[in-house]
Each structure stands twice: as C-alpha cells, then as structure tokens.
Amino acid sequence: MKKKAAKTHTSAYSRSQMRTAWLFLLPNFVGFMVFIVYPVIKSFVISFYDWDGLTAKRFVGLGNYIRLFQDGTFQISFLNNIHYTLVTVPLSILLGILIACLMNVKIRGIKLFRTIYFLPQVTSMIAIGIVWTTILANYGPINQFLMKLGIQNPPMWLSSSTFALISVEIVSIWRSMGYNAIIFLAGLQGISGDLYEAARIDGANRINCFFKITVPMLSPTIFLCTVMQFISSLQVFDTIMAMTQGGPGRATNVLTYYIYQRAFVDMRFGYASAVAYVLFVIILVITLIQFVGQKKWVNY
C-alpha cells in the first residue's frame, strides 16, 4: 500500500511539473505559431495568387513561379547572390580562423582586442552602412588617400556597377569575420595542448601542426560557421538596404532585396511570396548538401 501511495504521489507530482512546464512554454509556443508558422503557411498559399494586399485575390496557380524564371531582374539578383556568397563565405571563414589564431595567445590586453573584433557584429547595420558609405564615397577618405598616392581616377566604389557589389562584400566580410573569430577561438581553446606537444616532439613545425592538428580538430566549428555563413549570405538584406538599395542600376540587387521591392514597393505579394519560396528551396538544398558532404571531412 505504501508503495502504491508513493507511486501515486510521484505520478501526481510529475503531472504537476508537466503542467507547469507547459505554462512556461505556452507563450513562446503561441508566439511561434502566430508569428512564424502561420505566416509561412499563409505566404505559401499567397504565392499561388495575384494579390496587391487590398483587392481580392486572383488565383494564378504556378503562374508566379513560371514568371519569375522569365524575369531578368530575378536572374540578375540570383547571380548577384551567388557572387556575394562565393566571395564572402570563404574569405570570412579564412580570416576568422587567422584572427582566432592570433587571439589565442596569452598577452596583456588580449581581451580588449577580442572585444574590438567582435564589436561590428553587435553594432547596428544601419550605423555601419552610413559610416562605410561615407568612407567609400567618391570623394571620401579612401579615394582622397588614393589620389594623394597619385591615382587620379580612383574607383567609384558605390557608384560604379563594377565595384559596388565588391564594396558591399568587403563590408560584409569585415563585419562577420570578428564573429567567426570568436567562434573559432572557442574551438581552438578546446584543443588539447598535449596534441601539439606530441607533434613537436615528433619534429612537426607550426605549419604542420596547423594543417594536421588545428584544422582537423577545428573542422566541426568550421562546418558550423560555414553553414551559418551560407544561410546568412543568401539572406543578406540589411547591408544592401543600408549602402546601395540594390544600385547602381541592379548591380547589387539580391533576392531578399528583390522580395522587398516586389512586396512593399510594387505591392505584388503573391509574386514576392513565390520568390521567397524559391529562395527557401535554394537555402534548403545547399544546407542539405553541406550536411551530407560534412561526413567526408568533419572529424567529431
């Protein structure tokens, strides 16, 4: 009888704990359903309609999806996105690793340097955009410096279709490499010093240690940062909005900014939703490829 009473008491206590847990989870769950799940499903439905947000919806089936593949601006935006991703992701990862190695030393004031490198990540992108737009202006500090060096016609960084996307990529790399460096620093500090000591005893130099110990042991962290950087680069919006607004012409137009233009400038919500779902599929496919491919080079 005592055992049965104890079991009943435990069961009642467990149910009470479960109810308490659900009460704490409920606000977040409701918010997730209302602000994430419902808009995602609703936008998918809207992608099959022609709708300006005010008048009645007109069903067009796959018309929006067919039309976007015939849209020259969509194609340019997609290619700009690919260029942006292929440039920013490898460089931000590489520079992040190098900076992390430099920060992984015990010298006076190193914590201050770590904070400085991380500051761009926690600074408003609008503020960063304004500062960099001033720096890269036609007669800004950089071009003034280049003219003093004797370069009479320095690049029009944000006014030229040749250099505008490159300028945005430089700013994005500068902003993200500090964040990557902090993540890589955490990974570096998790590598046992015994491995390096054993390698040095066997005659390995610093380069050998880096490629034979550091990189393999850091591969899970590299994989994590690569996945996050790919997703972030394909969703880039704030940098474009703050610095170029897709210009000059369509030189820096990317898919997220194109979605914004179609939805909130042209009021073509159905078409914008179709573009958004194409972008979602692109991100999903690339992420799945990365997760399948990581089995060949990531060491856990």
TrEMBL record:
Pfam families: BPD_transp_1 (PF00528). It is a multi-pass membrane protein. The keyword Hydrolase does not apply. GO terms for cellular component: plasma membrane. One of its GO terms (biological process) is transmembrane transport. Belongs to the binding-protein-dependent transport system permease family. Gene3D superfamilies: MetI-like. This is Sugar ABC transporter permease. It is found in: Cell membrane. It comes from Hungatella hathewayi. InterPro entries: ABC_transporter_permease, MetI-like, MetI-like_sf. PROSITE patterns: ABC_TM1 (PS50928). Keywords: Cell membrane, Membrane, Transmembrane, Transmembrane helix, Transport. The keyword Oxidoreductase does not apply. The chain crosses the membrane at residues 21-41, 82-105, 117-142, 162-188, 209-231, 269-292. Signal peptide: none annotated. Residues 78-290 form the ABC transmembrane type-1 domain.
